[in-house]
Amino acid sequence: MSAFANLLVGGIFHAAVLFLVAAGLQLVFGVQKIVNLACGSFYALGAYFGITLANLALGAGLPAWTLLPVLIVAGLAMGLVGPPIERLLRTVYDRDESFQLLLTFALVLMFQDVLRFIWGPNPQSLGNVLLVYGKVAAGDLSVPVYNLLVIAAAIAAAALIGLFLRRTNYGRLLRATAENRTMAEALGVDVRSIYAVVFTLGTLLGTIGGALVVPTAAASLDMAIDFVIEAFAVVVIGGLGSMSGALVGALLVGLISALSLVLYPEFEILAIYLIVIGVLLLKPSGLFGKPAT
Amino acid sequence: MRARTLLPVMAAVALLALVPVLAPPFYANLLVPFFGYGIALLGFNLLFGYAGLLSFGHAMFLGLGAYGAAVIAGVLGIKHFEVVLAGVALGALLVALPIGLLCVRYTGIFFGMLTLAFGMLAHSILFKFYHLTGGDSGMRVPRMRILGLEFADYNKIELLAGPFYYYCLALLLLAGLLMWRIVHSPFGLHLRAQRDNAQKAGYLGVTVGRFRLTAFVISAVYGAVGGAILGFRVGLADPELVHWTHSGHLVFMTVLGGFGSFLGPIAGALTLTLLQDQLQSLTQYWRFVLGAILAAMVIFFPRGLAGMAGDLAGRLRPAKREAPA
User: Fold this and answer.
1) pTM of the model
2) A residues 116-135 near B, CB within 8 Å?
3) Interface pTM (ipTM) of the complex?
4) CB 3.0 to 4.6 Å from A260: which of A267, B8, B200, B267, for a disulfide?
């Protein structure tokens, strides 16, 4: 029983990080109609920089409890790559979606080597900091508080994004642009600036997700191309462009991979793809998406 | 085929035929994967360029070819490359039919995602079921007879740079001629009609789904044949062949060459094969350079090398206008 509970918490932690990255993917797809393959690269960038900054900060004598804020700052700082990349993507907004997909694939290739150039080919890890916040134990169940904090942060992010999109004026403009770009533009919405903001926000969610994961896992060059597939599974299951879909999809993928890891390890990724294919075939728009065209 | 297209093609074939004679075996050996990719991309472009369906999982069929070669020649011990080619073609047909049936209901981004999911499903099967597929160390593809001949006096490099090279060149020519007939047949016209306007084509009697499915299956067979060549050359079938980034490379080559033209993807395969070899010997950051080139192609030359060549030819001969492909 306690093993199961541990598993559950592990799955939810994984889901929390997945949700952040997938939410970025959804935001960009929902508004800009671009499937951003480079979201995994943003995730990896956040992870590597998170390690560097956390090592610097803790090495400089900052108290251990600053770990989480420092990682969030690292993620925010790496979000700065968003605007220049958005500028690059702007050149293909009017083209076929296959060109947009290819341009983000080019970014994946380039980021792979940028990361290799800066941090070298070997995986980097943060050392033993996971337990700086202690852990919560209940019976046999023991969970690092850090993991709970990240889960809470992801829930807070989900709530904030929801409030931003539904309750603020800018969020309404953003949704109007997603609904009908031409009409929004005709009514005076500055679509260019909306696109820049949305893409930067999407990048931020990816880099913060990456930075938050490093106390629990090493950062490696492969994480970019592996994680984008998982994030992609999340958005397909949840429905492209839907935020609540990202939340449910992330939970499903997180829990399924945690469960199958114990029940039948060969099935870990396999199970996710089977669900993805099943969803695409039965309801291609995903659980929460708009009908496919 | 008009003389203007035929002449450069014949010149290119003659040049390729001279490579093993004039250049050191290294270069002939380097070009063998190009033949594999060339054949695979002929099929890929039927799907992408002519049918308008961008698959991001096409590498699974190259993997099927390589793993098929490993099974037929390695596990079953039938060391004849012709048997392998026939076997993987049949295998691709059988695998592509059900997958294609499910995928071609969608176009655009949904088709791309569904094929990506199937590709990664294949990857995780190959990667995880270690006892069957060797996991990440892959399966060995043994040396085979070609045309029933052993070539016992040749070592592997000599075989690849000599007889196998010409075998693959002939195979590429054959596959190219066949594809030329396919895209210029009524079938090819139907494919393009449904690409440009599926609804209108449907009203005019094109059975859109069936044409897309046929294109998907043909492209899968071409992919498997190309993959078998890659497997023979490396002597190994490994899961990286099926990874989504490899599918991305197939799209890269096609866009580099230009998917609007028949020969573009082959030019792209040749360019990328040579370029990657040069870059890898120059810098360990070759992916960055390739990514930058891809980005530049997408932004500035979306019609690829073939489009650039067409523009150049048009400028040299302003009186004649290039007929649309």
Assistant:
1) 0.89
2) 116-117
3) 0.86
4) A267
